[in-house]
Amino acid sequence: MVQIVDRWNTAYFHGRLSTGVLAELRQLADASPDALALADRAFRLMRTARLAPADVSVFTAWLIGFAMPRTVPSAWSGTVPPVTMAGRHRTIDEYVARNPWHRPAGQGVFVDIGCGFPPFTTMETAQRLNEWRVIGVDPSFGRYLVYDKQGTYASYDDDLRLRYYQAGNFDPDQTATRKRFQQILDRLLPKLTGDEVADEDGRIVCDPMRQYETGNLELRGGGIGEFTVDGGADVIRCMNVFMYYDHPFRQKALAWAEDLLRPGGLFICGSNWIDSVASRYTVYRKEQCGLIAKEFAFSIDNIRPIELAPWYGLHDDYLENLANAHAVGTIREDTPFRRRFDKRLDMLLAKLNMCPRDANGYLGHAPDEMPAEERSRCSSVLASQLDDEGFVAEAVDVLRRSGRHAWRNHVGHIAMRPVTPPPLAPSSVL
């Protein structure tokens, strides 16, 4: 593993990664092949985005070395983990509410594909679009939801197979956590006679989807191509799904979406993270000639991210990652803008005490004492401040000067007319 980390450093960063970054990457010593491929792909995307070695933070390297192996499908018996959190799609909800492309005739129908469980984001969509009919769909809806006494949950399917448990991405002792949930399940399941059973150390809820449904929100099990909606849909949101699949799967999904959408309806796909940070998404509209890509957009924190999310994708041909990396590379190639942006971002990071630069000019780690929730929301704070200070508008101007049709969209993201990006350069290491 030391050898592969050194090869990554040489091949993608001219041997200039910091010792702190290299130390965190060596946590991949026992990683699965898909985790190693994911890390390699992340580094190639960083190179496409013109991210300098000194701008790879120790925190980002920790996410790659520690958290990444815990999110790949091989860590969850080959299934896609239904990672979800409150507020993740808040900006996308606002995009739909005020979008320039489509207004439903009568009650709007919103389908949230891959909504995850618990369906926090779909619940928030139903609240924001309270006059719409909202349908959350996911193949990972489990039969049983098991809570420990701290309120952390685990989801089990009909045959009592663990599908996912909360905080699985950052758990330092997955074996102990899985054992704890299994003990709760074994202890309480024989006592379950209705919808729920509990004791002082845990709780089990049977068919938990029902407790989340409301007057305008319904939940269904299934995936792309496995269900339909009578009368069609006005908006289909498919966030954080395509990053697990290849381009042929995407093409089949787009064909299915075209059939399901009403005339003028929208298909929104891409990826993001907590509080809509690291957003990158494409908006398609159903027109007479088919499903047409109208807009590709990304949040400004992608220009020099500290999060793992902008680099996460299980296939080289994941379109939103490619489009994002190439657009960011174009922006960072503009030296005057890059210098102003990086200088201001460094000041904001130092103020937050998040990944501050060391004496050698390298970005550091998150403080040990910083709560995980606060750490995860730093990028949201940064994105809002940078937009307020006009950096989104400046980035748009850079793209325009490069020949792109670009604008600041109505939710504050850098937007452009979609173009097919060049393919990702092949691996130099694996």
Structure description:
- 35% of the residues lie in helices and 18% in strands.
- The protein has two domains: 287 residues, no CATH class; 63 residues, no CATH class.
- Helix 2 packs parallel to helix 4 and helix 3 packs parallel to helix 9.
- The longest helix has 18 residues.
- By secondary structure, the protein is α/β, with parallel strands linked by helices.
- The chain has 13 helices and 14 strands.
- The model has no long low-confidence stretch (mean pLDDT 93).
- 47% of the residues are buried.
- InterPro entries: SAM-dependent_MTases_sf.
Question: Can you lay out the helices and strands and say which pair or pack?
Answer:
Elements: H1 2-13, H2 19-25, H3 33-48, H4 58-67, H5 90-97, E1 109-113, H6 120-128, E2 133-138, E3 144-148, E4 153-156, E5 162-165, H7 174-188, E6 196-199, E7 202-206, E8 217-221, E9 233-239, H8 247-260, E10 261-271, E11 280-287, E12 290-298, H9 319-332, H10 335-352, H11 372-376, H12 378-388, H13 391-401, E13 406-408, E14 414-416
Parallel strand pairs: 1-2, 1-9, 2-8, 9-10
Antiparallel strand pairs: 3-4, 3-7, 4-5, 6-7, 10-11, 11-12, 12-14, 13-14
